[in-house]
Design a protein that fits this description.
The protein is of the alpha/beta class. The protein has 14 helices and twelve strands. It has a six-stranded parallel β-sheet with strand order 2-1-3-4-5-6, with helices on both faces. Helix 3 links the parallel strand 3 and strand 4. Helix 6 crosses helix 8 (about 240-250). About 35% of the residues are buried.
């Protein structure tokens, strides 16, 4: 049915100024879908503060932005949206303003791309990571109210949808799935480094580095290990110093706390094996990136990893790390011909996933407004 009333939607673009790949990628995802929208009765407005993009290593600015984000999200953004006469706002970062949105008569659409909060007995952020802990508390205070008051909820996988409904049964008819996709304009081709493993990860406990790194440093010999997304300082908080020394003695280990996309893609292109050891994933963009750059994928059979990889990767149970070691050794010992067979099967992951890059579900969302 054709709309007779114009609808104006504001999208909170605050986190495009920070090094938050998941959220920034999802805002790009929404942008791509918006460009395909042909309904002239619907207008989208991207609203962001006038702050320069945060560079890697700017710790003081990062702490400042954590506090400013709360003020922006709870007060400034909804007020700006109202001044611009918007009818809806989209909160793309798992949190948002409930009370002021309601007071201003703004309906809101909530994006939940990380549903780790739905676990009752989840491993909370490390006690020594103040930023993570405060973010965790902030989300816990808001999330149930956000779910119950949202007009619609966008999430990234069927797994995430099930987890949200389990958390709040009232969300069942609100959820729209818009899967993540990658949009890499130029493929970087490099010679693969023999016996190489890449982890694109983070410091949160759900990434499981507190278990996987001690194991890798202890068991692997003569491997090239690339770790992106965590600093050496934080690794030393998770791994015994003796194991770190052993790991560096027996292997060549490269650690990057952060890499810009171009440099990150170069690391992908040089690596043979991509390892995703998380104990919980709602989707995982790195799995698609690994597929794109011809990495043989090993990932834990948890969360949405099988859904994202279409059951075409190698899987292991995090309770059986010896099985992981066998899979690493197996892939490393394959002939080039057999490696190509694995990569050919994995190429179907990206083809099937990119079929989701259409506006079908997005149109369902727009038609419901």
């Amino acid at each position: 049915m054709k709309k007779t009333k114009n609808v104006k939607i504001a999208i909170d673009s605050f986190l495009t100024i920070r090094q938050t790949r998941g959220i920034s990628s999802y805002i790009d995802r929404l942008s791509a879908l918006i460009k395909k929208n042909k309904d002239k009765n619907i207008t989208f407005v991207f609203i962001r503060p006038k702050i320069k993009k945060l560079k890697s290593g700017e710790k003081f600015k990062s702490i400042y932005l954590n506090f400013y984000l709360i003020i922006w999200e709870q007060f400034i953004f909804p007020i700006k949206a109202k001044i611009l006469h918007c009818d809806y706002v989209i909160y793309p970062s798992n949190t948002g303003s409930v009370y002021l949105s309601r007071f201003l008569n703004l309906k809101f659409i909530l994006v939940l791309h990380d549903v780790y909060f739905t676990l009752n007995n989840n491993k909370y952020p490390q006690y020594f990571n103040v930023s993570q802990f405060l973010s965790h508390i902030y989300r816990k205070i808001l999330i149930r109210k956000l779910c119950s008051n949202a007009s619609k909820i966008i999430t990234v996988s069927k797994f995430a949808e099930r987890m949200i409904i389990k958390y709040d049964k009232g969300t069942k008819n609100k959820i729209i799935i818009l899967k993540n996709c990658i949009n890499i304009k130029k493929k970087i081709i490099s010679k693969k480094v023999s016996k190489s493993i890449l982890l694109v990860t983070g410091f949160h406990p759900q990434k499981n580095l507190q278990n996987i790194l001690p194991f890798l440093f202890d068991k692997l010999v003569k491997f090239n290990i690339f770790i992106v997304g965590i600093s050496k300082e934080n690794i030393s908080k998770l791994v015994n110093n003796n194991l770190i020394k052993k790991g560096f003695k027996n292997n060549k280990i490269n650690i990057y706390s952060h890499l810009e996309k171009k440099k990150l893609y170069k690391v992908y292109s040089r690596t043979e094996i991509f390892l995703m050891p998380s104990i919980f994933e709602s989707f995982s963009i790195p799995l698609l990136e690994a597929c794109y750059f011809n990495n043989m994928i090993i990932c834990s059979e948890t969360g949405a990893t099988k859904e994202t990889t279409r059951n075409m990767a190698l899987y292991y149970n995090n309770n059986n790390l010896n099985n992981l070691k066998k899979k690493i050794d197996y892939l490393s010992s394959l002939s080039n011909k057999n490696k190509k067979k694995i990569l050919y099967n994995q190429s179907k992951i990206l083809k099937k996933n990119n079929k989701n890059f259409d506006n079908k579900n997005f149109n369902v969302l727009l038609n419901s407004l």
